[in-house]
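Quick one: structure tokens for this chain, please?
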Amino acid sequence: MRKVLQILFVTVLVLCFGLISSFDLSAEPAPKDTLVVGTASFGFESTDPIVWESLWSFATHDNLIGTSDTGKPIPAIATKWWLGKDGKTWTFKIRKGVKFHNGDSLTAEDVAYSIEHFATPKSMNPWSHFLRFAMDSVKATDKYTVVFKANKVQPPLYVPFRWTRIIPKNYIEKNGIDYYRKNPVGTGPFKWVEFVSRQKVVLERFDQYWGKKAYFKKVVELMIPEESTRIAMLKRGEVDILGGLTYDNIVALQKQGYETRDVGIPTVATISFVGTWLSKGPTSDLKVRKALSYAINRDEICKTFYKGLAKPGGRWCIEDHAYGWSKKWKADPFDPEKAKALLKEAGYPDKFSTPEVVINVANTSPPTIELMQIIAGYWEAIGVKAKVNITDAGPWNGMFFVRVSKPTDPAVGGAFPWVFPGVFNNVYHAGNMFTSRGIHGTANYPDLDKAYDAFMVERNPRKAERMWTKFMELGESKYINLGIVIAGSKAVVSKKVGKFEKKASQMMIYDMLSTIRPAQ
């Protein structure tokens, strides 16, 4: 599993490209059968999941394996699957009667091709390398059977299979990958109709969809960077769903009679420290990192910044519904005196030639920038020199999603916020955070590598989950990632929007679009 990018519809904006729209905002209200979504940014504008991450493809494509509302793997394009006695052979039985948007029938050849495509070395998707490093071979053994051979025992591989979207082999081989990226074809509940860069995306219901059909005939997504403009359009009836709103505006709109809807999994706000073993700065010291955690007044943040719509806690890509979560886990308390004592024990600031802690944050997430400024203030209150460095999303991803290797790498010693919905199973996300092979460049600990590797080969499900809880506890003890809060992922809706049905959804609005009902 792997999904890079912030959900554009949660209450905290995505860490992605900030681009200004020239879209004509004087549109008339959309027809009743059209759902209009207002978004702050289109991010990477990707339609191919190997080009960073394609959020749109969660509406236009199907995953190999689905996810239940409680986080369990369920049938999707694969109706059933099993792991062989050798622990390396995965067999998938493929759903019959599925059509691509261009009319082609889906077969096992498309699925094998999709897995190979996602696992290609060309992929920039940060989660695809888990399949790539595990894959020995993949092939269609008959029209509706795919066999994936892993090069080692790895039972958790079902997780990245759940993130693998199915693409059309013949269509791409006939037209080329560039044509596909401009004219994407999937098997999902919506088909691609129109795209204007930095302005709008139009999706239309696919009436031949194998599963439950979407309620709205058409979905239009508008890129509207200015929050005040998005809100004005909501009030004029030109937009039906708004995400990326500050909590101040969410509460204000609620008081004005607008309803909110929960979108996917709650957001988890964390801060990570990159290249601590390479740095000579303050984040290289465990005691300093602990002090930075105790300096944060999480209760105050929940009450003020999040307007009571959050609670202290959260860990890396995981919150209290997920695989391996322990009810005994609690966030560090606010204890500035303990923080100051830890700094003194660490010899801060005299021990460090560059005592400043730099928080690197992408420029397309104003709420995240504001949150980091608040946290920098807490750190300064205990005597730590802190700076919020605002950067473009491209360079930001280049620092946080490329493993550091030398002290001069720009990410080394820095702090990186990640304000993003949790996931049902963070096994691979945590591999990126807590192992020496992780792309975030945050860990280099033999004991963590050993614990992770032992978990990854354990085939007893109950024992494996207990091992995972222990691994997460060990990882958190290093203080390379600080959980801050768990916040509701909310969107504000117009009177045209009814219930958001529960769905086998990963975490975002794109794979929920087909379940949104019109108001009665």
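The two ends are 37 Å apart (CA to CA).
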